[in-house]
Amino acid sequence: MSWRKTYTGYSIGCAVVWAVILSVVAVVYREPGQRERHQYLLTEKGHDLFAVLVVLMHWGDRWEAAPQGGPVVVRHRDCGEPLHVELRCAHDHRVFEVEETESGPRAGLTHQSNS
């Protein structure tokens, strides 16, 4: 087994496919590295998706990872503690369950037909 599969949990082929997909939608860009290794960095669009990426990683760790957990932990650089994402309303109330929310049209929107 390659070190890449051991470290990331994904084969190099799978990682390349994801890198290409994320590049195409302009979430990451490739910066040339040494010895044909490239580093993928977040674009501005990718930075806006960072919390989503962390949530998806946590979902994968819970539902798809091995019993010991996922292969990667995202930590806060200053204190070293793992990150977690919370949902909060504009009044700073924490939302725990989807049942605590409701959806509807944005204020001021009017229905427009496509004709």
Please tell me about this protein's structure.
With 115 residues, the protein is an alpha+beta fold. It contains 4 helices and 4 strands, in the order H-H-E-E-H-H-E-E. The chain has helices spanning 3-8, 12-24, 44-48, 50-63; strands spanning 28-32, 38-42, 87-88, 94-95. A two-stranded antiparallel sheet has the order 1-2. It has a two-stranded antiparallel sheet with strand order 3-4. Strand 3 and strand 4 form a beta hairpin. The longest helix is centred in the middle third of the chain and has 14 residues, at 50-63. It is extended, with a radius of gyration of 19 Å.
Give descriptors for this structure.
115 residues; alpha+beta; two-stranded antiparallel sheet; 4 strands; 12% strand; disordered N terminus
